[in-house]
Amino acid sequence: MDATLLAEHLTAWLRREIEARKGRGAVLGLSGGIDSAVVAALAQRAFPDGTLCVLMPCHSDPADADDAMVVAQHYGLRTLTVDLSAAYDEVVAALGRAASELPDHRLATANVKPRLRMITLYAFANLHGYRVLGTGNLDELTIGYFTKYGDGGADLLPLGSLTKGEVRDLAGALGMPQRIIEKPPSAGLWAGQTDEGEMGLTYEHLDAFMRGGEVPADVRARIEALRDASAHKRALPKVAPLPGAG
Length: 246
Fold this sequence. Notes:
about 250 residues, alpha/beta, Rossmann fold, about 5% strand, globular
């Protein structure tokens, strides 16, 4: 796959799909990671005057914001920052008053963060008439490594057919700063969290599986189990039929 031609293809696709949805531009969360950086670069190509990148720290590592600004300055991106830390604290406190054990449940509280970010992005999408771009890649979408109605809540997924390795190749074709390409992938849900550590899988194995390559039997079994367990994340809500309708 020629990464330069792929960049041109995805840029044209974004422009076409956003305009078909009566959008005036694109909004996305800029995290400081490679996936959001690539989506931002593509969006900027498609809508030079209609791309908004939102930094949404939420008790986050300050280094992530630094990396996000490196990307923004490199591509001349329009950015704004919404610090969600206080909102997160209020939501978790309110939930804790209803269920005292909830604030100690790491995954339940961590998933509040991407859901607050989804709310934020759609607020700006409504304000400007933009469409929300998701940053998930094929590896993550297949095994459900995203938060339902959080970072999984988007109008378009430009990287959804690309493995992590292909995203890295695309980043190179887009002239991405090397520090972003080499940064260990992390959703930033808690201190020290990494994608591969949480998934229990390497992107190398995921990439190979997605493209029909050989992977160890136990790895294949884990990927297939995660894919099957997360099927509900990739489907629209099921609508109950009327009586007698099936």
